[in-house]
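Late entry, evening session. Most of the bench is empty. Finally got around to the prediction I had been postponing all week. Sequence below, unchanged from the version circulated by S.P.
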Amino acid sequence: MDLDLTGKVAIVTGASRGIGHAIARRLAAKGMTVTVAARSEDLLRRLTGDIQSAGGQARAHPADLRDPGACSALVADTISQFGRLDLLVNNAGATKRGDFLALTDDDWADGFALKFYAAVRLSRAAWPHLRAAGGCIINIAGVGGRTGSAEFTIGGSANAAMLNLTKSLADRGVTDGVRVNAINPGSILTDRLAARVQRRAAESNLSPDEAARQMTREMGVSRFGHPAEIAAAVAFLASPAASYVQGAVIDIDGGLTRTL
């Protein structure tokens, strides 16, 4: 399916691995020029090399987006190199799990700095360019923003804030011609989830496959998701095919979220 993305420019944060990595590769394969951002320069260079070897265009921008100045610098670098911006994918941000009573103020501040405040700052810096291009923002939040969990208080709270930000920016975007939507991934088989499966296997004396089946049964889903499935939804939402999709929150979680 031709999504009519050729020649357009995107920024993807948290692109060194997992969901962000898959999103960057998918967008590049669909003809977009992609600036990829994360803290790991080596992994970004490997990603851009792979994209370029496949015939795509990509630029690495190593940065710690917890630094307030890093967000405007990322947008400025992309505009300087490519002259336009059509899509911002706010994907960066891994938050600490654990007992609420053991999580410190620093844990909370660090989680929100990358997951939420970076998205705020990037959206603000990118907005004039997206308005000029008739572009869009896609926020990668998470199902924890809809359903609370005792072990995921920081992540769930940051995701809920991301969802409200999405709705608020979409409201402004109606006037400014910028589409803003969000995706809530469920349990996606990234390195972080694989590590949780390994811990469950070790703790329960199970094989990794058995531990994964046990975890999905507990969640009430048939399997874990894959980063490529999130990436496919991002490409669709970025395309003219989704031109009437505004302020949407799309759960891609295998049926995990059963509430409205």
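Two things to note before I forget:
The first helix runs from residue 18 to 29.
The chain is about 50% helix and 15% strand.
Will write this up properly tomorrow.
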